[in-house]
């Protein structure tokens, strides 16, 4: 047993080789603590690094995986499902480190302080959906760790626009504020309002091109958000393989809740569903307007499929 523990310590202490850009990546492993310190020295705006180590041997560390988006693509569901794996330690809230200037200005020490305590065998995961569509974020993530593994969950762009609108609409309702109808935000001067932010967020190929300037496609795993909703287990299996996790999540961890109309989770006898704000019904929309959306996204979708070398069952 002592020999095994000594071997584990030596393995963790081995130096981590970080390739230069453009990247030809060897087999990646979670960065060791010494590499974490080096990353801090190179990229932190505040270099007075202090490790937060718990008495049980766990510690806070930089994430080895980030769910970068997309907003209303199913990021919360993905994180909750992935958290079923014992070797995943997930940050509870969206950190917004790389896209909010005031947070980024605090440096990587602040970023580490937002992470959960994790053991050496665990992968720390952070989720901030706005990263995917924020122009500055890819370079900033690259500067932190160019060999990081990224998760991106996408769904039909038109459906994502409607979900985006629905969230903002209900946020206004909860604050007892008025908000325009879906037709009012989607139509401007009789034409589709392409300046509407929700439409821009669904132009996946534009944002993906920005990420591919810094990361090879092999470091960005795209989760099919539409399939994750309908049949989550096969999609989560793919994520496990991408993160090089042992297969611990199985089909019995998921069950369909007829009342809510979507899959919920079962873990060690406990059952839980996503927050009631998830899975809200979209507003009724004129079929002609929906056709306009589908038509508008046809060419951007084709460009995205070509960019990533795979297709999705979108309109």
Features:
315 residues, alpha/beta, Rossmann fold, 5-stranded parallel beta sheet, 3-stranded antiparallel beta sheet, 13 helices, 12 strands, 14% strand, Sulfotransferase_dom
Description:
- Keywords: Disulfide bond, Glycoprotein, Golgi apparatus, Signal, Transferase.
- It is found in: Golgi apparatus lumen.
- The strands form 4 sheets. The chain has a 5-stranded parallel beta sheet with strand order 3-5-2-6-9.
- The protein has helices spanning 2-13, 33-43, 75-82, 101-104, 108-113, 137-144, 157-174, 182-186, 197-201, 204-211, 225-230, 232-242, 287-308, and strands at residues 59-60, 65-69, 88-90, 117-118, 123-127, 149-154, 187-188, 191-192, 220-224, 254-257, 262-267, 270-272.
- Helix 10 runs parallel beside helix 13 (287-308).
- Residues 1-29 and 41-47 have low confidence and may be disordered.
- The protein is of the alpha/beta class and 315 residues long.
- It has one domain (56-308): P-loop containing nucleotide triphosphate hydrolases (Rossmann fold), CATH 3.40.50.
